[in-house]
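Need tokens for this chain, all 296 residues.
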Amino acid sequence: MAGNVNHDYHILEPDAWPLIGALSALVFTTGMVFYMHHVPASEGAAGTYTFWPIVLGLGLMGLIATFFMWFRNVVIEAQRGDHTPVVQLHMRYGMILFIASEVMFFVGWFWSFFDFALFPTPLEFNAETGSTTTLFGQEGAIASFIPKGMEVLDPFSLPLLNTLILLCSGTTVTWAHHALIHNDREGLKQGLWATIALGVLFSLIQAYEYGVAPFGFGGNTYSSAFYMATGFHGFHVLVGTIFLAVCLYRAYLGHFTPRQHFGFEAAAWYWHFVDVVWLFLFIAVYVWGGWGAVYH
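Here are the structure tokens for all 296 residues:
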């Protein structure tokens, strides 16, 4: 009979959000290009007008709306039973591939970090101006990843504290997962609250660390690699925290069952990925990268 579903797959209805998302991404990227190249601009009666904030803002709003509405549709599909075991299996494959792509994203930053560290240029750091000077050809010049005279963060102070915080958050999200499997709704909520609180605490400490860091973003390869690697990790922590907050909201709405909770499972996988990346960052960037340097 027409309209009856006789298979385990979910056929999506026509939706405009993929097109809106693609156009928003194009507008957002165009705005970023305008911002980086300081164009376009025009002279007016009140001075110079720049259009990149408008273009960038429109693209960003479109992307946020796409994320919200698209994920909302996925939640609705899950709640009305469209996510059969076969569909859930394929969604798991998709999440695994997404995390694999994120792993390769960070591989690029680690690659650049180790390339700079193992094949450095001899530099001297001027603490007053924050600039560096190349020492090639000068007597006694020794190639070093960290410029001579530059201070780095002590890995066994705030970075170690943040490492312990993220490790604890990994245990609390696992607690929430096991509580959900055993249909313990209160344990699920408590575990999620604890994980979100630890994620926010990590971000606050990271922001404070950036504020007291004895070096800025540019000037040398060490500081650039440091801020790019840890900064993108911090962005992933923010995304993971939002991911878990949505799961907490859904838990209060009565969503998720011991048999069907892929949304929460995907958030937990993502959070564990964030934890593992930080461990590599702590060991490689903070401990090994700053080995032998002057600690701040």
